[in-house]
Automatic annotation (TrEMBL):
Signal peptide: none annotated. One of its GO terms (molecular function) is S-adenosylmethionine-dependent methyltransferase activity. InterPro entries: Methyltransf_11, SAM-dependent_MTases_sf. This is Methyltransferase type 11 domain-containing protein. It comes from the Bacteria. Residues 59-145 form the Methyltransferase type domain.
Length: 276
């Protein structure tokens, strides 16, 4: 997930420092990486890639020697702390820039890889500009592979989530955070403020401490939700249908791949072909 002009209190600077405390579904699983690599190499054996964000799982995987990658992220702390500079080829580079103005020439890349990028836009209305930029930098016929967070059509309410925490199967903490954020979003146009998730969590700690014990969440995992406390950011969780409507102007949806790990049903991989 991404993020020059990050607000001073944005939680991404803290996420960067504690990146190793996060896991799937908030970070891509090896299943996702395998799908991405196989689709890219099926199209071109020696690709030129754009990575939107600095997701290390995609940078550090076993790309063919000679592969070129440009990673673009707006958050300097994410670049400093998360980009695996010492573990990638010299043909890989990272640059700080906005996704609405990608620092690449027209038709410069064979494939674009993104992870959770539609959720972390400053405003949902920017999605068309971002997709237009992705279309611009892709070569004709190029591929965009986007693992994106989608809200179920029949999404659970906060009360339903609470009932599940108390009586349902045990849940990983990062799956819990994702479900909580989605449950708190009233509509796509409104989005959801992460600080509201923090407040809900503090109420849970005070009123149902048994839930924390039941799910055996570690202190390091639980600490990550504190980063939301004073964040001014908003997140956006569209449904799969809402995302598809956003894509249609620039891309053909070739395939939607659902992996098998916990909450993978909420973060499918969209395989998009550039419309010429």
């Amino acid at each position: 997930m991404n993020h020059a002009n990050v607000p001073h209190k944005t939680h991404w600077s803290r996420h960067a420092v504690f990146w190793d405390s996060f896991g799937s579904p908030l970070r891509p699983h090896r299943e996702d990486v395998g799908h991405v690599v196989s689709h890219v190499l099926r199209e071109t054996p020696l690709p030129v890639l754009l990575l939107m964000g600095v997701t290390p799982e995609y940078a550090r995987t076993a790309w063919p020697q000679g592969t070129r990658m440009t990673a673009v992220d707006r958050c300097p702390e994410m670049i400093r702390s998360v980009w695996p500079a010492d573990h990638v080829p010299t043909t890989f580079r990272v640059t700080q820039a906005e996704w609405t103005a990608l620092p690449l020439a027209n038709h410069a890349v064979d494939a674009v890889i993104g992870d959770g990028i539609t959720t972390v836009l400053p405003r949902w209305e920017e999605i068309d500009t971002v997709l237009s930029e992705v279309h611009r930098v892709l070569r004709p016929g190029g591929l965009a592979l986007m693992r994106l967070f989608v809200k179920p059509v029949d999404s659970e309410s906060p009360d339903q989530l609470l009932k599940s925490l108390l009586c349902g199967p045990t849940l990983g903490f990062h799956s819990f955070k994702l479900r909580l954020l989605m449950a708190l979003q009233p509509s796509l146009s409104a989005g959801v403020a992460p600080r509201d998730a923090y407040r809900w969590w503090k109420d849970l700690e005070a009123t149902h401490p048994e839930a924390l014990v039941r799910h055996a969440w570690t202190q390091d995992q639980r600490h990550t939700i504190s980063f939301y406390e004073a964040s001014p950011d908003r997140y956006w969780f569209p449904t799969e249908a809402e995302l598809t409507r956003s894509f249609v102007k620039y891309f053909t949806v070739k395939e939607v791949i659902y992996s098998s790990y916990e909450s993978a049903d909420r973060c499918p991989l969209f395989v998009l072909h550039r419309k010429n």
